[in-house]
Amino acid sequence: MDPTKTPKTINATILKGENKGDVMLGIYELKGDTFRICFDPEGQNRPKEFKTTPKSGQFMVECKRIPPPDQKLPDITGEYKSESMENEGGRLTAEVTIERFGDVYQVTYRKNGLIAYIGIGIRRGDTFSLCWGANNQVGLSVYQIEKGRLVGQYTQLGNIGMLSQEVLTPKDKSD
Fold it and tell me: CB atoms < 10 A from the CB of 116, how many?
């Protein structure tokens, strides 16, 4: 590959088949999410532009990057109010912060300003899964990302077989 030439050039060696060892001369370009490459399979003439004709003997490929499925979904980072139901019927509330680091999320639960739980999560489409722990407790939460909130269920080690409900609602700026 030689990105200093205009158009950028590339040579490809055929590894299998009838023409094994032959070198194809080509050109390439990467613009945004589109990669184009054009070759002369005979290796005689390097293409000068990105087009082919039936008699040119050249071939061209255009590839487009497909965005990840969650790219068009709403951002879930920010401050939330957590409301969950205890198995005995009582309500628990907490303040929650969701932060993103690459493809991973850190989630911090605070009660009265102190960290109550901290966890790490992953998102696939409209599902958010979280493993959390604190004070000798470890648990798993799975949320459905809905418009304006995350609705989930959680369980914890020691309460195997029991699921509790939780809803995370974005905090108002006035909170």
Answer: 18
Give whole-number Cα distances, 140 to 120, 137, 165, in Å: 10, 10, 12
Counting as low any pLDDT under 50, the low residues of the chain are 174-175
Range of the domain at 29: 8-64
Query: Is residue 3 included in any domain, yes or no?
Result: no
For strands 114-124 and 127-134, give the pairing. Answer: antiparallel
pLDDT attached to residue 71:
60
Place of tokens 């493993």: 131
CA dist 93 and 116 (Å) reads 11
Task: Judge whether 13 and 23 are in contact, CB under 8 Å.
Answer: yes
Q: In this predicted structure, what is the pLDDT of residue 150?
A: 96
The candidate with the shortest Cα–Cα distance to 116, out of 136, 89, 99, is: 136
Alpha helices in the chain (DSSP H): none
Residue 91 inside a domain? The answer is: yes
In eight-state DSSP terms, residue 69 is G
